[in-house]
Amino acid sequence: MSSGSDKEPVIDRKARMKLPFKDLVFRPPEERVQDFDPVARLLTPEEAIEAARRCIHCPDPAPCQEACPGHNNISAALKLIEEGDFIGAAELYRQISSLPEICGLVCPHEDLCQGHCVRAKRGEPVLTGALEAFVTDYQRKHGEIKVAVGPDSGRKVAIIGAGPAGLSCADLLRGFGHAVTIFERYPAPGGLLLYGIPNFKLPKETVHARIQDILDAGVEFVGNTRIGVDKSIDDLLADGFDAVFIGVGTGVDATMDAPGSDLPGVHLATDFLVRTNVDPKLLPEDQRGKLEVGRRVVVIGGGDTASDCLRSALRLGAEEVTCLYRRTEAEMPGNKKDRHLAEEEGAKFRFLTQPIRYIEGADGSVAAVECLQCELGEPDDSGRRRPIPIEGSNFTVEADTVILALGYWPDESIGKTTMDLETHKWGLIVVDDETGASSRKGIFAGGDAVTGPSLVVNAMLAGRRAAEAINEFLMG
Length: 476
Ligand SMILES: Cc1cc2nc3c(=O)[nH]c(=O)nc-3n(C[C@H](O)[C@H](O)[C@H](O)COP(=O)(O)OP(=O)(O)OC[C@H]3O[C@@H](n4cnc5c(N)ncnc54)[C@H](O)[C@@H]3O)c2cc1C
Known about the structure:
Layout (H helix, E strand, L loop, with lengths): L12 H6 L10 H4 L12 H9 L9 H5 L6 H9 L3 H11 L3 H7 L21 H15 L13 E5 L3 H12 L3 E5 L20 H13 L3 E3 L10 H6 L4 E4 L5 E2 L12 E3 H9 L18 E5 L3 H12 L4 E5 L11 H9 L3 E3 L2 E8 L5 E14 L5 E5 L5 E4 L2 E4 L3 E2 L3 H5 L25 E3 L2 H4 L4 H20 L1
Parallel strand pairs: 1-2, 1-4, 2-3, 4-16, 6-14, 7-8, 7-14, 8-9
Antiparallel strand pairs: 5-15, 10-11, 11-12, 11-13
Helix pairs in contact: 3-5, 3-8, 5-6, 6-8, 7-8, 9-17, 12-13, 13-14
């Protein structure tokens, strides 16, 4: 089905190489810090066709396809886009992905498909991520999106956690005809897509729309239910579920044991992000109060969460927003593009800085962070050079709000309440990589709860792999 403008003439590789690169249109930094709306606009149909025509269609296997964790057939999708068949292209992405509208926006494309585009070697890559986001959005506006539902198998599966892993597992399980109920600790489904990644990176309406597709396919959602506390996995099995998928992510913020960490004004990243980014109606009552960040905000950490906190603080009106990181920029784990956007918007970075104490102000709230200067030593287990604090190098950074974005740990409640479920010492669930099968028969797991903090695309694929294995388990 052709859904775009008239077909463009087929052109050869040389002509494709000559087509100019046009980047996404970003809103100016001073405008975008005024709100939580997306920072770049989606491509128009004309721009999408132009961008797709720059693909030179490398011989199979194309490097972009190889670099995509799901091995999306990007070259074939781009051919369809070039022909104006946007809906056909969207359907192609949906064959291997449960969340293409989300991956098109939040995957670190510069490190994956786009980063491996051969055109990037001597110029600019094809905008593969933006094209995926465009066609899936186009399909929602102009076509129909339906989750496939198979004939009723008579089997019931419980999914714990409504993040990318759980939602993707549910998507495929409905295709196999199994009844699916998702149990979720938060009031609404979405996991970190809703309760973590800010709206300026991933519009919540995109998340809600995709979740609605999955619910419309007959997936039952039970919110405000923490498995391992309100109910155990054994309760679920006793209630008649034939299999269980655990997709609970790693929702416990890492903390830093430093004097003053209980001062008002010191926040954990998740609490800060949900209070600032999520509609209060979708939050538990104790997280509904909006935060006043004051004039100076310090974010401690160097990953994607730190960038999201810096950028959210700027949008809340903070004037001086500073990231403190123990190593140098070269060792920073977070996405470079997000860091660049944060800098453009006014965030400052202070490297080789180790916070050691939060200092109380006259009003009893945090007023400053005492730090030590660091130098880099030998590499540690992560392969990155270890930061070594320099004795006597103490200095302070003033702050009305401090946000700790130091990483995440898994919630141990499920591991501790489920007999014979093997976990690592941190509480991550041990599974077979291919199937997601845990040490206990009929119980599967995937996503961050297995790998530790990772990416949406990896959690999505783990949920789908587990759904295939659950189907095999249930149907023999
Ligand atoms: C701030 C932030 C920004 C990020 N930005 C990006 C990005 O730009 N691109 C990208 O690819 N990735 C990003 N990530 C990572 C990505 O969000 C995760 O890798 C992904 O969401 C993991 O999916 P999941 O389904 O395994 O877990 P989650 O998304 O964490 O979902 C798990 C769900 O399980 C629920 N749950 C937990 N325990 C229980 C329980 N006991 N009972 C019931 N429910 C429970 C949780 O409430 C949650 O809803 C970001 C992460 C954070 C924190």
